[in-house]
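[[Sequence with tokens]]
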Amino acid sequence: MRLRTTTCARIVFVTSAFFSLSACEQNAFVPPPPPKVEVAPPVQRAITRYLDATGNTAPIQSVDLVARVQGFLQSINYKDGAFVKKGTTLFTIEPETYKLKLDQAQAAEVGAQATVKQAEADYKRQVELVQRQAVSQSTLDTSTSTRDNATSSLTQAQVNTKIAAVNYGYTNVAAPFDGIVSNHLVSIGELVGVASPTQLATIVQLDPIYVNFNVNEADVQRVRDEARRRGISIDEIRQLPVEVGLQTETGYPHKGRLDYVSPTLNQSTGTLAVRGLIPNPDRALLPGFYVRVRVPFDKQEDALLVSDTAIGSDQAGRYVLVVNADNVVEQRKVTTGPLDGGLRVIETGLKPDDRVVTAGLLRAIPGQKVDPQVKTSEAAPAPAKEAAPAATK
């Protein structure tokens, strides 16, 4: 009986100790600390706003060189693909025949001049004789008619001389401007200009060069509103700078200016045709290149920018995570702009003193507390200064 009492006492003691230990463990629980995230204020700096587009290069002048007179091609006076100056003779087409025709026309003109001189002298004599009543009026009329016919024949001879001179000039096909000449399309000794003008080659001017691109309707209105705000006329808009870069180039190394803006929108595409004029002294740009184009049209002094990695998106649009004064994460809807110097411009939704989560985004849950670690410089350096987009006159 005593043994059973002792055993029961031991059971009661062990049970009491177990419950006491469990109670101590529950009282010692400590919640985990708020997760650490990196935060930084938006970068505030001056930016230049651009219209971005894609376009194609086109020659400022491109002309097919043709044979305008019939004859055998006598010589080719250039190398295929060579750069030639204006007035350089490129082809010669059998000039002897046309030189003889010119000489013939000039001789006929000299004869017509002599006939006119003789007819004029005879007319004057007849006038004097009529005044003395030595000849009849009909004789004077005949002399007058002869003089007028001679004058008409002289005019016709002079025209024939000019036509012969023009045709003789066509036997030498010259460069109409400085440019690159394509390969020749005919050979020496070939008969050209038989039924219609025969194309001999093509000459293309490459310096300067055109860049054609289209601007959508929203951007057109944006530029016009900005121009109206700054008091810039439409003519000054046409003088805005244009920057061009090839697909294989970094940045926009080719600088020029706007040359033409279409007066009307294309209704089928909703875009405005625009053309830039780019100096091309080293002929780095060739006609037909696919290029990137941007036109600076405005400068903002206090834009806000954040890293692209700090921007998220959902069905409602773009957003950033911001830590408020109580270290609680908030989701802030933002309107984004273009990239500038590696950072994304924030148009609306942020203030300069906001703390934007830049790292640890998976640990930053809206509505929960975090331990923000301030990063003083999360942004890439500002890009190098560029020319102001003010219109050049």
